């Protein structure tokens, strides 16, 4: 075996240190969430579950969590349906006009969040959508569409154009071809897009701050307000639950990929 | 059945998403331009005010500085990670990959909150240093540019790593091997042969991080504590505190134009299509 060079040691240790910088800060919320104090800090005398009890018995926190979940699911469904149809249409067309349409659909990735939220606010006031769940769902669906369209389109890159052509020449209608040939090929992309869309909605904060007042509260908004007003360790408990959930899902997908 | 008929049915698939995007997104964003030129009076007053205000200038300079430092930091740190994952395959590679993806899925809000917990006046870092007797009074680690930068680099790092990794995956090791075989040192082979091939990935990563950083709101607002007013926070400040929609909208137009200019300049060096439209 070759002796390990300084070059290699530099990159290898560097990479692990940087990964530690990336991941360890996420874990600090765990000890803090178990604190026995009523402020943010490490546990003083013993570990305590009081902040978890507080989260699970506080109707405001639970209500906000539930709002985020159901809004996220509706958004993911709408964005997945609209975005899949869009990407499939563009894939068939593959001309200049459809390329422009694809650029139009990804503008929400490029426009700064505050700027688009101002736009939403003014328009939603006109439409009477301020502080309604529908208003939030509509805004989030628009923000999620780019991700669905990108991932569905990426899944279709490998689809042989002769297959739908064959289906058509054997007498299938456009609709039948799309449903029986193209959608199955796009399935992995649709699933990725659905998950992306859910997360975009579940994490979105700036838009919600602008277009909701009091009636609609999502989890990020509740966390945001908690950080602004008084830093209550309940936020650390919520953060821990979310980080552990993410950790679990990442671990499961990583294991499934290796096996 | 004509070719035209066929085309119409494909456009019908495209239409619903495209229509709601134009009506409920593009038009509202364009509406901001209208406000900038019409409120409170018609004309370019808001832009004159913007150009004359030293606070606005300070905020724009700060925004570009923070975005630039964040980009450089993410590229340096990200390159090392992307290089290791792409070039030293071993049994830990899947784990390293998972550790890059993991923070991506945790919300920016939670990640910023973690940094508040770490860097606050009585945060974990200050407490630890005080208990160890290294410092007497707490260090000021947040509510300044330092805190904003650390958290921004943390949030943006995966956006730099992923495009660089995609690029490195496509690089054949034959060239580096040839250079080594011809007597180049490991470092020379890396710098003169490998690195130039990774520039497209570095550029895409830089573009993504820079553009996202320019308009970033959550992390600077939380870690800056009102003292590091980047343009996005300055806009909300104008609107929420002073109800100054005219100036707020003019600033938004300024930020949009700045973003567009960055993309325009980038398009001379980068294939925007593969950097943005065909990501992953």
Distance between the termini of chain B: 37 Å
H/E topology pattern of chain B: HHHHHHHHHHHHH
Total helices of chain B: the number is 13
| Uncertain runs of chain A | none
Fraction of residues in H or I helices of chain A? over 70%
Quickly give the CATH architecture of chain A. Answer: Orthogonal Bundle
So, the CATH homologous superfamily of chain A?
MetI-like
CATH C-level category of the largest domain in chain B: Mainly Alpha
Number of helices of chain A: 13
Largest sheet of chain A: none
Shape verdict of chain A: globular
Rg of chain B computed from alpha carbons, rounded to a whole number of angstroms: 23 Å
CATH class designation of chain A? Mainly Alpha
Structural class of chain B: mainly alpha
Low-pLDDT windows of residues of chain B? none
Give the overall pLDDT of chain A as a whole number.
Answer: 91
Q: Per DSSP, what share of the residues of chain A sits in E-state strands of 2 or more residues?
A: under 5%
- Strand segment count of chain A: 0
Find the biggest chain interface. A-B, 90 and 92 residues
Number of domains of chain A: 1
Structural write-up:
The complex is a heterodimer of chains A (259) and B (280). Chain A has one domain: MetI-like (MetI-like fold, Orthogonal Bundle). Chain A is 78% helix and 0% strand. Chain A contains 13 helices and no strands. Chain A has helices spanning 6-27, 29-33, 50-57, 59-93, 96-105, 107-110, 113-127, 133-156, 162-169, 174-203, 206-211, 219-229, 234-258. The radius of gyration of chain A is 23 Å and the shape is globular. Chain B has 13 helices and no strands. Chain B is globular, with a radius of gyration of 23 Å. The two termini of chain B are 37 Å apart. The mean pLDDT of chain B is 91. Chains A and B meet through helix 1, helix 4, helix 5, helix 6 and helix 7 of A and helix 1, helix 3, helix 4, helix 5 and helix 7 of B.
Outline of the structure:
The complex is a heterodimer of chains A (259) and B (280). Chain A has a single domain (60-258), classed as MetI-like fold (Orthogonal Bundle). In chain A, 78% of the residues lie in helices and 0% in strands.
């Amino acid at each position: 075996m070759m002796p390990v060079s300084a070059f290699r040691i530099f990159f290898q240790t560097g990479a692990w240190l940087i990964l530690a910088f990336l991941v360890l800060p996420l874990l600090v919320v765990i000890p803090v969430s178990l604190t026995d104090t009523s402020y943010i800090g490490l546990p003083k005398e013993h570990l305590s579950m009081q902040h978890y009890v507080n989260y699970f018995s506080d109707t405001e926190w639970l209500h906000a969590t539930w709002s985020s979940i159901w809004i996220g699911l509706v958004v993911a469904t709408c964005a997945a349906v609209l975005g899949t149809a869009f990407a499939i249409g563009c894939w068939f067309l593959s001309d200049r006009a459809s390329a422009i349409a694809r650029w139009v659909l990804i503008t929400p990735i490029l426009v700064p969040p505050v700027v688009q939220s101002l736009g939403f606010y003014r328009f939603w006031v006109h439409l009477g959508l301020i502080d309604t769940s529908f208003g939030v769902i509509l805004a989030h669906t628009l923000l999620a569409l780019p991700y669905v369209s990108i991932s569905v389109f990426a899944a279709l890159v490998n689809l042989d154009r002769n297959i739908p052509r064959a289906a058509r020449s054997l007498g299938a209608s456009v609709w039948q071809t799309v449903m029986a040939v193209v959608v199955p090929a796009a399935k992995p992309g649709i699933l990725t897009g659905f998950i992306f869309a859910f997360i975009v909605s579940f994490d979105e904060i700036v838009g919600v701050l602008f277009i909701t007042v009091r009636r609609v509260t999502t989890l990020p908004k509740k966390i945001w307000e908690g950080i602004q007003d008084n830093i209550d360790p309940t936020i650390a408990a919520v953060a821990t639950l979310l980080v552990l959930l993410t950790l679990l899902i990442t671990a499961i997908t990583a294991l499934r990929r290796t096996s | 059945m004509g070719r035209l008929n066929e085309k119409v049915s494909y456009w019908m698939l495209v239409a619903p998403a495209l229509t709601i995007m134009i009506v409920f997104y593009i038009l509202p964003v364009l509406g901001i331009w209208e406000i900038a030129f019409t409120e409170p009076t018609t004309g370019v007053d808001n832009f004159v005010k913007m150009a004359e205000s030293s606070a606005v200038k300070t905020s724009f300079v700060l925004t570009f500085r923070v975005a630039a430092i964040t980009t450089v930091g993410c590229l340096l740190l990200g390159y090392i990670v992307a290089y290791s994952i792409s070039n030293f395959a071993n049994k830990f590679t899947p784990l390293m990959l998972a550790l890059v993806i993991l923070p991506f899925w945790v919300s920016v809000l939670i990640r910023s909150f973690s940094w508040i917990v770490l860097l606050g006046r009585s945060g974990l870092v200050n407490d630890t240093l005080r208990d160890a007797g290294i410092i007497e009074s707490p260090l000021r680690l947040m509510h300044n540019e330092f805190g904003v930068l650390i958290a921004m680099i943390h949030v943006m790092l995966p956006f730099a790593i992923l495009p660089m990794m995609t690029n490195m995956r496509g690089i054949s090791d034959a060239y580096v091997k040839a250079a080594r075989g011809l007597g180049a040192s490991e470092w020379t082979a890396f710098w003169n042969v490998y690195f130039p091939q990774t520039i497209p990935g570095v550029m895409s990563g830089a573009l993504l991080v820079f553009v996202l950083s320019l308009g970033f709101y959550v992390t600077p607002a939380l870690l800056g504590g009102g003292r590091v007013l980047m343009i996005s926070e300055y806009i909300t400040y104008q609107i929420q505190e002073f109800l100054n929609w005219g100036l707020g909208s003019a600033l938004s137009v300024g930020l949009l134009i700045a973003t567009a200019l960055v993309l325009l300049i980038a398009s001379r060096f980068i294939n925007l299509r593969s950097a943005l439209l065909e990501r992953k």
